[in-house]
Amino acid sequence: MTRAPDRPAETEHDAEDVWEHVEGESPDTATRQTLNLAHRATEKFPELVTRYRSFAGPVAIVSGTLMALAGVAVARRLRKGQQPEEILEQITPEEIEQAASVTSRQNRLLRMIRRIGRRRYEADGESRDGASPSDAS
Q1: What pLDDT was estimated at residue 137?
Q2: Taking CA atoms, which of 68, 112, 117, 133 is between 20 and 30 Å from 126?
Q3: Which residues pair with residue 54 across a beta bridge?
Q4: Domain containing 103: what range?
Q5: pTM for this one?
Q6: Burial of 44 (0-12, 13-18, 19+ CB in 10 A)
Q7: Based on the domain organization, do 70 and 121 belong to the same domain?
Q8: Cα–Cα distances in Å, from 37 out to 96, 111, 114, 115?
Q9: With b meaning 16 or more CB within 10 Å and e meaning fewer, what string describes 101-126?
Q10: Does 2 reside within a domain?
């Protein structure tokens, strides 16, 4: 299995210098950590980076889509309580590419539950309307 490249420990002062001259709102510490891990995770898989490469003039850059997918995959693992080094060791290219499809699977489950509930509600309404004891008199 490929390992993520080792990086020197980044101090809080160094991280602040990066965001000092950027216009707009700077990301908070948790977002910064997630984005850093997402970049390191994508560097771990060069074949994935070449698949999602886009060209801005003469320069080839990683697509924003890949960074968004990697960010989602890393954020999910962070929310489960995994440590950053553990995430970098265990994350796979398939997990990164399928980060968006997990949500659609959850949405499918919710739609199915709603459909079942709607059918039960309609069935209860029909049973009340169809055979009412007050109609017999």
Answers
A1: 46
A2: 112
A3: 61
A4: 98-129
A5: 0.56
A6: buried
A7: no
A8: 12, 33, 37, 39
A9: eeeeeeeeeeeeeeeeeeeeeeeeee
A10: no
| Together in a domain, 86 and 106 | no
Over residues 122-135, mean pLDDT? 68
| Cα(5)–Cα(67) distance, integer angstroms | 17
Same domain as 111, residue 50: no
**What's residue 126's pLDDT?**
77
Residue 70 domain-assigned (yes or no): yes
Percent of the chain at pLDDT above 70? Answer: 74
Same domain flag for 86 and 112 = no
6 is a domain residue: no
Whether 107 maps to a domain, the answer reads yes
Percent of the chain with pLDDT over 90: 35
Q: Where are the alpha helices (DSSP H) in 20-132?
A: 29-43, 46-51, 64-79, 84-90, 93-97, 99-130
Residue 44 near residue 33, CB atoms below 8 Å: no
Could you tell me which of 5, 16, 15 has the C-alpha nearest to residue 40?
5
